[in-house]
From TrEMBL:
Name of the protein in question: Phosphate transport system permease protein PstA
PROSITE patterns: ABC_TM1
Subcellular location: Cell membrane
Residues that span the membrane, as ranges: 12-34, 66-87, 99-123, 129-147
Length: 294
């Protein structure tokens, strides 16, 4: 078999694999949208859920999902990027560093249910907080921190060494080189890692079952006091997210329109993740152009 035939055969196999994956994703996406879009309405998005009567919405659960996502990424991104910078630029190349990398990889492969049990032990029972937003955010930080560290380290390592060496040759300090040369060049890859982590946060249910809880208190969206029990911004209140609500409705729901609520919530979840990814990539491109003067 000559090289041209082999090349065409390999190209066809890779193309077929890509087409199968794309078809599966498109079919799943279309199935969710076809069954769920018809259930979405302004009333569905802006009314609170109901445990007994039909016609409930997902207002509180949708807000809780975005709020926990915001708090989680507020903690994860600085710690993850800082850890990745340290591992790539400052950590000595020895057995201890290799052991730390191994621990990070093991931690990133833990099932979310294990992270949830750990979060319940640490942030629910040990602290005495009970089911809270901050407990769920901290558990998800443990869940996503290894991803951010490894992605940041890989992104910084992939930056051409000539850029770093040229900066250091001009007498620029290592920290200033990291801040003005390496990190801006690695922004696209770091942003990809942040998007992957945020997508996992938005769709996570198992870890939040044991940390953020299955209920949401009556919220007053005009109450901006973060220490008030009825304030949506209180981080020490329980918060049922949209993914947990979908699971709860499908498994424990007794409302007459449980299937419609689950289908509509699933469609909103998928659309929200898609819009968030698009907006995050647009924002990342703007930041990258500003930092690199392109």
């Amino acid at each position: 078999m000559n090289r041209k035939i082999t090349d065409k055969l390999a190209t066809g196999v890779f193309g077929l694999c890509a087409a199968v994956i794309a078809a599966i994703l498109a079919g799943l996406f279309l199935y969710i949208l076809i069954h769920g879009v018809s259930e979405i309405s302004l009333h569905f998005l802006t009314s609170k859920s109901s445990a007994i009567a039909s016609g409930g919405g997902i207002r509180d659960q949708l807000f809780n999902s975005f709020y926990i996502l915001f708090i989680t990424m507020l903690i994860t991104i600085p710690l993850g990027v800082g850890g990745g910078v340290f591992m790539a630029e400052y950590a000595p190349q020895n057995r201890i560093t290799d052991f730390i990398r191994t621990c990070i990889e093991v931690l990133s492969s833990l099932p979310s249910i294990v992270i949830g049990m750990f979060g319940m032990l640490m942030f629910v029972n040990l602290t005495g907080w009970g089911y809270t937003i901050i407990g769920g955010a901290l558990a998800l930080t443990v869940f996503n921190l290894p991803v951010m560290v490894r992605v940041t380290e890989g992104a910084l390592t992939a930056v051409p060494k000539e850029l770093k060496e040229a900066s250091l040759a001009l007498g620029v300090s290592r920290w200033h080189t990291v801040k003005t040369v390496l990190v801006p060049s690695a922004i696209p890859s770091i942003l990809t890692g942040a998007i992957l982590a945020s997508g996992r946060v938005f769709g996570e249910a198992a870890a939040l079952l044991f940390t953020a809880g299955l209920t949401t208190p009556r919220l007053n969206f005009t109450d901006l006091n973060p220490f008030s029990e009825s304030s949506p911004f209180n981080i020490f209140r329980p918060a049922e997210t949209l993914a947990v609500h979908i699971w709860s409705v499908n498994t424990q729901g007794i409302i007459p329109d449980a299937e419609a609520i689950a289908n509509g919530g699933s469609a909103v979840l998928v659309i929200s993740v898609l819009l968030f990814n698009l907006c995050a990539r647009w924002l990342g491109s703007v930041i990258y152009k500003k930092l690199t003067a392109n």
